[in-house]
Amino acid sequence: MSSETNQVAVEPTSQVSVETPVSDTTLTAETVATDWKASLSEEIRADKSLENIKDIEGLAKSYVHAQKLVGADKIPVPNKFATEKDWDAVYQRLGRPEDATGYKYDLPEDQTINQEVLNNFSNQAHKLGLLPGQANGVVKFYNDMQAASLQEQDNVAVAARENSTKELKQEWGQAYEQKISQATNLAKTVGANELFNTNLADGTKLGDHPVMIKAFADLAAKMGEDSITQSSGPNYQTPAQIEKEIGNLTQEGSAYWNKKHPNHDAAVKEVLALREKKNQV
Known about the structure:
Elements lengths: L28 H6 L7 H4 L10 H15 L13 H11 L20 H14 L3 H41 L3 H14 L3 H4 L13 H13 L16 H11 L14 H16 L2
Helix pairs in contact: 7-9, 10-11
């Protein structure tokens, strides 16, 4: 009897797609970027030092920077109980010169600060712990401020002299140079030059003021022919003197008004000449 071989058809195993369940704790890239502190403990997450760090990269940069500072040369800040010696040590580490002579100043040749003032400042700067650059900056600022102040005073003085000259020329006319010379000669003789050079609060000199100049000019005129008050060159009349002389020649009843008077023509000519002289002022 022939045996029959039982053939069993084996069905190919079907492929089963198995899906791995996604855990609720899985963080997406977006979650990490927006809430990277979520995995930290509440105590660390609330620390103020993390407030400005927005993501993991920022945290990494902060860490790297901190590591670079680990080996840096650091200077401890003295507390309220620190002594002067403690602060001296800090100033020395920061770069303060060994002594006051170590300060150098970058000033122009026409500096307004004298050497004694600079030396005194250097001593104080060293005591206060100023660095060379700081001390130089303070000195330059002060020098520039002083220079500007002096320039302003010069401008005021120049303007005062110009106004004084204009006023006196208008009053004295052609006699201006003569009057100035007489006033100056008198001032030199009585030793008033120092008085003339006295600086007033507004930066002008006392000798630049019309009142002072006219006072000496009037005093010189009262001294008459005294040689110490006389000036070289011709004598001139002031407009006021000319006007006074015209008034004398043209007063009522004078030859100027009487055509029959023998001096009428001479008086008219003299008055015309005086008026012309006055107009030339």
